[in-house]
Amino acid sequence: MTSAERHASFIKSTAKRLGFDFCGIAKAEFLEEEAPRLEEWLSRNYNGEMGYLANHFDKRLDPTKLVEGAKTVVSMVYNYYPEKKLPESSEDIKLAKYAYGEDYHFVIREKLNEFLKILREEIGEIDGRGFVDSAPVMERQWAKKAGLGWLGKNSLLLNRQMGSFFFLAELIIDLEVTPDTPLAKDYCGTCTACIDACPTDAIVDHGVIDGSKCISYLTIELKDAIPSEFQGKMENWAFGCDICQDVCPWNRFSKPHQEAKFQPHPELAEFTHRDWQEITEETFRKVFKKSAVKRTKLAGLKRNVDFLKSK
């Protein structure tokens, strides 16, 4: 076994020990195929008001610009599918499942820091950085290159063993590691469930999303008033949206996560329509103390709930 193969084996066993469900490895190199796709997507203004997605174009495509001398991108999957969903009837105010518990950025960042520490203790001085949706890293594309799945028509990474209800995280390191092989095909076939179900027609082509129409964008990223054209189309999603994942046949393989920090605040399961409409600063701070929902601030959440109410 070569040192690169030994490194691959150790990295994968460490990822499993830290609670990651899958781990794949890719060679750190320029994402040549993605450059024209990203350029085209930006030229169509599909990023809406997410101007930051147009920044650091080169860094998004070249990991060596994020970590000098980078040789390897390690991609990992961390499950967040809940054992019990919050109410999701047509009358309920809905919250994307990833936001039920503590903010995943902090939960997974801690694990990545621990991962780098373990690698350095085992192998020696390694230059590297951990990423969890926190820098210009094309995480789905790297996960695909690492053999963890394929990009579905809803643009999310799909995995045959667990669907898509998971977070992606990366380690970019200057260590030579034997890479994995990408899947030879995607497994969406002729299915159009996600395209058919999207109430705002945000999926414009296979794997191409008009972000400015996505309910997740409208309820989180958009800081201005939600355009009236989306009146009656939000299906009661107040923060994020799971529609294209809920209808995906591959998510029948989703299994409950084992992360205690992703459990929702006890009061959240009891929220009524009225509780959402009358939420106070005190309740917001208590229930969403460590949650990703804090990104919208109370004013943003109220804007979303009021927009749903006015349908």
Q: How many structural domains?
A: 2
Order of helices and strands: HEHHEEHEHEEEHEEHEHHHH
Distance between the termini: 63 Å
Derived from helix and strand composition plus strand pairing, the structural class reads: alpha+beta
Mean pLDDT level: 95
Biggest β-sheet strands, sense, barrel? 4 strands, antiparallel
The number of helices is 11
Shape: globular
Radius of gyration: 20 Å
The stretches of 5 or more residues where confidence is low (pLDDT under 50) are none
Total strand segments: 10
Helix content: 25-40%
What does this structure look like?
The protein has helices at residues 3-17, 34-43, 57-61, 104-123, 139-145, 193-197, 215-221, 243-246, 273-277, 281-287, 297-309, and strands at residues 22-27, 72-79, 94-95, 128-131, 150-151, 157-158, 166-173, 203-205, 208-209, 237-239. With 311 residues, it is α+β, with helices and mostly antiparallel strands. The chain has 2 domains: 3-85 and 102-173, no CATH class; 193-309, no CATH class. Helix 1 (3-17) runs antiparallel to helix 4. The longest helix has 20 residues, at 104-123. The protein is globular. The chain starts with a helix and ends with a helix. One of its GO terms (biological process) is tRNA queuosine(34) biosynthetic process. Cob(II)alamin binds at residues 60, 133, 154, 157, 168, 216, 241-242. Keywords: 4Fe-4S, Cobalamin, Cobalt, Cytoplasm, Iron, Iron-sulfur, Metal-binding, Oxidoreductase, Queuosine biosynthesis, tRNA processing. Residues 179-208 form the 4Fe-4S ferredoxin-type domain. [4Fe-4S] cluster 1 binds at residues 188, 191, 194, 248.
